[in-house]
DNA sequence: GGTGAAACGGATATGTCATCCGCTTCTTCG
DNA sequence: CGAAGAAGCGGATGACATATCCGTTTCACC
């Protein structure tokens, strides 16, 4: 048995259609159009079965659409970890994450989903959890963060901040981003180590 | 349950069916069963049309199911406002709210929904927003809360805390409640007035 | 350019949602 | 009391969304 099937080589037409579909998925996500695979097929000028073959569920498509944003976030995390100031690294990473989650609607569902339902991004999520945990640990070791907060809390807290921003009745996307940053500020203050 | 009737009183059989339906709705919410009005009808031994007549959408049923929990929360808010310590009032009210939102799954969707899509609880939401605003104002006036935080932020922040707890991978409901309280603690610390 | 495998597409089966309308039950009033 | 009609009932059924199947086409390789 072959060791790895991670990269099955796609046929030329399959690759073309895959791209078309992901492109349409990206557009739908950006426009807020609900991802219905039939509609995606029509918009991509592709048969329904082709869409279902590549992406069995809407979630699978959103997951694929989310990958570039996800990788950008990983880059941010690595940069935060490479910097000199532990607390600034944590802070900047969290601000960047909240901005990204609010700017790209495909990220939140992937973040919030349990790992097993979205196997494709599982590895990315694992790496991001690992990196954000190390960012937090470093800030805690530097005495900048309350010891009671652990790495398991970072992703949920971020999701909570983003959700709070989306609940907040705001006219435009800019207002939502502003609300998100404000809520994150509150949370960051809450994470600070207590003087008392 | 006490529900103010703005329109004519229901006929006897209609009232009986209404009760059956709401009861089933409550059970479905507690069990996490998705609210599909056809299923509700079958479980309540009632025709489909009867369900649709009383509750045009699943949200409308959830809304009605949420009312008792909502009123309990209003009671908490009034108690918090009647107490002596402004900050303790805010803190206790928020803890009670988060506990309630995590214990009763019907509350979150009603909280998060824009007002106009759920007209029935609009008045309750208005009253709760008013009370929580006054609780916050009192705490701020006492110098216990950062002046940058306004009453518009309270409900979104609470929703965010609850959402964070539900994202947090937790085995049982107790763990989720514990996570919610921890997240609320972080948030409360973030709300405290800054030393700088 | 011939061959087998992979991929395609859309007709259609399956499942869900919500309405319509003939029938039943309740209330009112003579 | 009992007739009349208003209010409510139920489930068959049409409208709509989702997902699969299979005959046809395209591609990669020889």
TrEMBL record, chains A, B:
The keyword Transcription regulation applies. The keyword DNA-binding applies. GO terms for molecular function: DNA-binding transcription factor activity; transcription cis-regulatory region binding. InterPro entries: Homeodomain-like_sf, HTH-type_TetR-like_transc_reg, HTH_TetR, Tet_transcr_reg_TetR-rel_C_sf, TetR_SbtR-like_C. Residues 36-63 form the HTH tetR-type domain. SUPFAM superfamilies: Homeodomain-like, Tetracyclin repressor-like, C-terminal domain. Residues 85-193 form the Transcriptional regulator SbtR-like C-terminal domain. Keywords: DNA-binding, Transcription, Transcription regulation. This is TetR family transcriptional regulator. It comes from Nonomuraea fuscirosea.
